[in-house]
C-alpha cells in the first residue's frame, strides 16, 4: 500500500521472438510470421484480418490490438534497422546498457 492505495507494479514484457511461436501457429491467414534467417516474429499487415487469434495464443501478451488500423501490432525487433546492420531502437536507447 502506498498512501492507503494499492501499489501497482508494471513489468515490461516484450516479444521474446520464440523459437516455436504459438502466435505464428495460431494465425489462420499467415499474417503472423517468423523469419527463418534470424527468428524475428512479425505481422504482415497485408495479410492480417484482425481476428486477434494470435493475441489469445501468445502467453506473453506481445501481440496487441491497434484500433487505429484495425489490426494486430507487435515488436518486430526493428527488422528494417537489423537488415541495415543496425541495432534495434530499444537497444540504442536503453538506459541500462553500458
Report on the structure:
This protein is α+β, with helices and mostly antiparallel strands and 98 residues long. Helix content is 20%, strand content 12%. A two-stranded antiparallel ribbon has the order 1-2. It is globular. The mean pLDDT is 90.
Order of strands across the main sheet: 1-2
- Report Rg: 16 Å
Structural class from helices and strands? alpha+beta
**Biggest sheet record:** 2 strands, antiparallel
Q: How many domain units?
A: 1
Helical percent range?
A: 10-25%
Sum up the structure in keywords:
12% strand; alpha+beta; globular; two-stranded antiparallel ribbon; 4 helices; two-stranded antiparallel sheet
Sequence-ordered SSE layout with sheet pairings:
Blueprint: H1 22-26, E1 32-34, E2 41-43, H2 53-57, E3 64-66, E4 71-73, H3 79-83, H4 89-93
Amino acid at each position: 500500500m502506498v498512501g492507503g492505495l494499492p501499489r501497482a507494479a508494471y513489468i515490461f514484457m516484450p516479444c521474446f521472438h520464440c523459437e516455436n511461436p504459438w502466435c505464428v501457429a495460431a494465425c489462420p491467414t499467415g499474417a503472423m510470421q517468423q523469419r527463418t534467417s534470424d527468428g524475428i516474429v512479425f505481422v504482415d499487415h497485408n495479410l492480417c484480418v484482425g481476428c486477434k487469434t494470435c493475441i489469445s495464443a501468445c502467453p506473453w501478451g506481445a501481440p496487441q490490438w491497434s484500433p487505429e488500423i484495425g489490426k494486430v501490432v507487435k515488436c518486430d525487433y526493428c527488422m528494417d534497422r537489423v537488415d541495415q546492420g543496425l541495432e534495434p531502437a530499444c537497444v540504442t536507447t536503453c538506459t541500462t546498457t553500458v
